[in-house]
Structures are given as C-alpha cells and as structure tokens.
Amino acid sequence: MLISGAVFALMMVLGLLMRAAQGNLIELDPALFYQILSAHGAGMVGTAGLSGAAIMWYFVGRYVPLSAKMYWAFIGLFLLGVVFILVSIFIGGYGGAWTFLFPLPAMSGGAWEPWAGALFILGYTSIGIGFLLYYLAIGYSIIKQYGGLGRAMAWHVAFGGADEETAPPPAIVAAAAVTVFNTLGIVVGAAVLVASLVNLLFPSFAVDALLAKNMIFFFGHVFINATIYMAVIAVYEIIPEYTGRPWKTTRIFALAWASILLFVMAVYPHHLLQDMVMPGWMLIMGQIVSYLSGLPLLAVTAFSLCTYLVGSKVRWDLASALLVLAIAGWSIGSVPAIIDGIIVINKVMHNTQWVPGHFHIYLLLGEVAMSFGFMAWLVRAREASQEGMSGLDKLAFGSYVLGGAGFTVMFLISGAMSIPRRWAVHLPEWTLQDQIATVFGGVVVLSVVVLVLKYVGGLRR
Fold it and tell me: Rounded distance, CA 205 to CA 196, Å?
C-alpha cells in the first residue's frame, strides 16, 4: 500500500500540472502535456488496480489460504510493466493516452517512434499477465474452499432458496464476482493488445478498427470498475468493527452482486454512443444498462451502509471517515455518469470535461478514498492511544473532501459549458475554471501527502 499511496500522490501532481497548464499558470509543451496525460491516466488506473488488489488479497486471505509467491509474481510483473510504460512515454515520447485506441500506437504522425508504442503495449501486457496470475491464485483458492465460483457468489442463496446462514461472507462474494468479470476483461484486453502489437510490427496484418475499439472499451470499463469493486471489500470488512454489527450476505446482497457481474460487462457500449456504425441495439443496451448499473450500488451498498450506521455508536476516526466518504463519493459520481449515458445528452457532453468530472468523483472521492481509509486502518493500532480523530486527521480529511469536491465540480461545470476534454491549450474564456480547479487540486495533493506520511509514520512505529 505504500507504493500505491506514493504513486497516487505523484500522479495527482501530474494532474495538477496539466490543470495549471490549461489555466496558463505554467507553460507546458503540448507534446509533453500529452505524455503527462498518458502517464497520469495509465498511472492512476494502474495504481487503483494495485491498491484494490492489495485490499482484496488482504481480506480474502482471512477466509482462504493464498500463495505469497503468486502475489509477488503479480507485483514483479506489474512493476516490470510500469518500467516499460514509463520508458515508452518519457524516453520514447508516447502520448496516445492510457486507452491506446487503435491505431494510435502505430500511427503517431511522427510524435513518437513505433518502438515507443510497442513498448507501451508490452507494458500493459506485462501488467495484464500479472493480474491474471493474481486472479488465478484467488479463484483457485476460493473454488477449493467453497466448491465453485457459483457457491462463492452465493448463487445458492440468491437463486436456490438456501438459507442465508450458509452464504459466504461478503468479501468472498465480491472477490469471486470480480475474479470472473475482470479475468474476462483482461483476456479481451490481452487479445486486442496482441493484435495491436502484431499490426504495429507487421502493418499488413489487418485489424478491424471498430472491433478493436469495442474490445478496448470492454477491457477498460471492466478493469476500472473492478478497481472499485475490489476496494469496497474494505468497507464490508472494516465498518463492522466500528458499528459492532456484522455485514452479512443476504439474498438481496447476493442478487445485487449477481447483477453487478452482468451489468459491468454489458454497459460498456455507453462509451461508443457517438460511433454511428455501431449496431443500434448495442447503443440502446448501453443506455438502458447505464440506468440499471447504479441500482446495486445505490440501493444495496450505499443504503446498507446507511442502515449499518444509523443507530450504531460509530467510533469515528480517519479510517472510518474515509471509508464512508468513499461510498458517498462513489454514489455521487455514478449520477453524472448515468446522465452521460443518455444518448441525446451524450451527443453534446461526451467530448467535454463532464466525462473526467464524473470519473474523477468516483475515483478520487471513491476508490482512492477507500485505499487511504484502508491504509489508515492498517496503522490505527500503532497510533497514539487517543480515540477519534486528531487535529491533523481532521485537517487532512477536511482538506481532502473540500479539495476533491471543488476539483471535480469544476470539471462538471466546464463540461456543462462545453469545454472540451483532452485539449492541451485552452482558450482565454476557459482558463478561470482551470485556475480554480488548480487551487482545489493543490489542496488535494497536500492532504494526500499528509495521509501518506501518516501511514509511513504508523509503519515505523
């Protein structure tokens, strides 16, 4: 988690530099801007995956034996991929963004050499192989312990009418579901990565661009959602320690996770609503499933959390505050995402800053907050013996909430004003929002530095 915390802080600094450049507060060469954009996107998504994986591994390990060798193999392949990606960007000049849309890695218009695109793809491939090993280890242990992934996901309770007392704990239900859908997502991602690499090395090898785009967005959407669904296990496991009420696997909970398994994989066409050559039924499906996908989160996890908190004598400290914030941020961030999934709105809003607005909400105030909440919980026993939040805790938490809310809302405001996303240079009429966002972003970075230093201090004690 120390690696994740430090990289989160570094990636936030890169994001801050981009907002400052857009606001004309500093000067960045556009080519460097897009390199930073690529590093920031790949770095934040990858680190969210790494932190979520650490959380899931930790809590699944409470219920089933796991192989430490497999985890270290995962970490090794992950770090190897990071090295490849950094070299491709900051030495090779790759600036095609974390989505590596075909045929950008191979057709840069002279912005970077083909080897840089190939190395970026190899970096992703190494990370993907690492995650496959990770899920293989977890899936094998869960199947061995519970007799199959279906029973691990409590389908015998959800669909078979079995007693809820026979259901696995929520951490296992979530881990089994994530293992299924993210393994499928990574396999699809690996296929399109290999196809892109072969096309880059042998241009005569034809790749259907629309098929490649579908595969990329299926992989990307599934993966980024998996990071949050892995991290939410911390809420299921830690919050009961503060409320004194166990989080149980009920029939509704099992049904919610069964629907998540379907919705996470079916909703990705809402990223392709502007691709008019897509089959109409897929675009309609993307819009409908966008509406439905928020229900398991809002109606089950968020509602259940409120139920657990109401009437409980919660012992508030930094860890519990961050975890509750994470569910709130995740829930709030899903709303502008659902709005963007409406076809008539998507036509106007999708290429604006509305989109980074919604995903920064549920990542910055969702997954990242879960990760820092988990980190604070890990070292809480080593803190001074006082109960509750210290003055520094309150300052760091308040700054994180204020800075995160202000930073993300400025994206939404900019999107509502039709300010485009991914532009290195902004018109003078757009810079005020960029400058305000930069101030809020600076507050977030400072609060994150405090959170990381507190974690380091806790480890040393």
Answer: 9
> Residue holding tokens 């902004």?
426
- pLDDT for 95-119, tens place per residue? 988 888 888 888 888 889 899 999 9
**What DSSP designation does 154 have?**
T
- The residue whose two tokens read 């951490």 is 171
Q: Which two tokens stand for residue 83?
A: 């090295």
Q: How far is Cα 186 from Cα 170, in angstroms, rounded to an integer?
A: 24
How many whole angstroms separate alpha carbon 29 and alpha carbon 34? 9
Q: What is the pLDDT of residue 138?
A: 97
DSSP state of 405: H
CB 30 within 8 A of CB 346: no
Q: Which residues pair with 352 in a beta bridge?
A: 420
Domains of the chain: 1-28+321-461 (no CATH), 51-315 (1.20.210.10)
Q: What is the pLDDT of residues 416-456, one digit of tens each?
A: 999 999 899 999 999 999 999 999 999 999 999 999 999 99
Q: How far apart are alpha carbons 409 and 216 in whole angstroms?
A: 28
DSSP string, 225-255: HHHHHHHTHHHHHHHHHHHS------HHHHH
Both tokens of residue 270?
């809402």
